[in-house]
Amino acid sequence: MRQALPLANTLTLIPGGTRGIGLATAKLFARNGSRVVVLGRDQERIKHVLEKELAPIHGSNSSVEHLGFQCDVSNQEDIERTIKELGKVAPVDYMVNSAGITRDSLLIAHASQDIENVISTNLMGTIWLNKAVVKGMMRRKRGSIINISSVVGLQGNIGQSVYSASKSAIIGTQGANEVSLSKWWTEKRFEGGFSKSLSKEVGSRNITVNVIAPGYIDTDMTSILD
């Protein structure tokens, strides 16, 4: 008898799942049996990911149908509309929120619109996504959320003061105080700030909320740093 995959019969939502860390995460969850739903802004990119990246994992005979929704995570109404549509398909068991952008610049020269875009996507987008998804999890009394932050949110970086602010708010100072610098690079897993507070609000409903703060990873977003 074929052994069931560990995440069979689950649904995993991955905002930012069309590129970089999000795409790698989507493929990992799919390989372990979860039905994956990716969110992104580019409809053509979503189509490519579904057809060329996720569908081949289980082959043409698989009954698992992965999905994608076009969604601007900086827009609360867009998020709520998307989660409502997704709710008609299946409830969310897991969310790995990897949606994020960077617009690097020294603060003194930072364009106001770029500042607003980074904060609205990375921080407010995280808040709106968690708020929308956790409602269903609370009704079902189970679920797990992982918010992707960044090591820059812990130690800062020249030209990334705004990006750092948007990521550190997800982690909070608790993680930085409790984990030594050497462990930042080896463990890269923290909970604090927004995510820690939310975990205390929903923990009694069997819902976990955690943070992963990766170091430098070669992705489309970091390619501009080369």
Automatic annotation (TrEMBL):
GO biological process, one term: fatty acid elongation
Keyword entries, A-Z: Oxidoreductase
Record field: transmembrane: none
Alphabetized InterPro entries for the sequence: NAD(P)-bd_dom_sf, SDR_fam
Gene Ontology MF terms in the entry: oxidoreductase activity, acting on the CH-OH group of donors, NAD or NADP as acceptor
Keyword Oxidoreductase: yes
Pfam families in UniProt: adh_short (PF00106)
Organism superkingdom: Eukaryota
Similarity comment: Belongs to the short-chain dehydrogenases/reductases (SDR) family.
UniProt name for this protein: Reductase
Taxonomic source organism: Linnemannia hyalina
Lineage, uppermost ranks: Eukaryota, Fungi, Fungi incertae sedis, Mucoromycota, Mortierellomycotina
